[in-house]
Amino acid sequence: MHTDMSCVTIVCQDEIGGLQVRSREGKWMDINPCADTIVVNVGDLMHAWSNGRLRSSEHRVVLKRNASRFSVAFFWCFEDEKVISAPDEVVGEGGARIYTPFVCREYLKFRESSERGKFDKVGFTVKDFAGDLKQ
Ligand SMILES: O=C(O)CCC(=O)C(=O)O
Ligand SMILES: [Fe+2]
């Protein structure tokens, strides 16, 4: 189970399926394979840039039977040196930025070093890196 550290991810899975996404309420939902259909995931960079309006959801792959599975994922990120800071128009008047602005490269480095050797990647998200200033 993890969140993508990208801005947006495009996933194409074959008919074996297995992709699941966790709802706000914590319920795992199957993303059933559908011919000629792609899945678009919001990643951590988009989550921070949108000030949490677009949620980088936890997802995982679970195989219900022993079968080979094929999927292709395209991770679209911002350039390394770009600073992620939710724009004023998104934050709104009287609103607050929930994450400290950060450089993409630094977040990717944080994720890569934290993920090494770990199966459960939750706990190493943009929240842990840039802090939830609301809480
Ligand atoms: O294989 C899949 O369907 C999803 C893969 C995925 O979530 C990832 O590579 O980040
Ligand atoms: Fe993913």
TrEMBL record:
Pfam families per the UniProt record, alphabetical: 2OG-FeII_Oxy
Gene3D superfamilies according to UniProt: B-lactam Antibiotic, Isopenicillin N Synthase, Chain
Domain called Fe2OG dioxygenase: residue spans: 1-79
Domain of life assignment: Eukaryota
Family annotation (SUPFAM superfamilies): Clavaminate synthase-like
InterPro entries, alphabetized: IPNS-like_FE2OG_OXY, IPNS-like_sf, Iron_ascorbate_oxido_reductase, Oxoglu/Fe-dep_dioxygenase_dom
Name of the protein in question: Fe2OG dioxygenase domain-containing protein
Native organism: Salix suchowensis
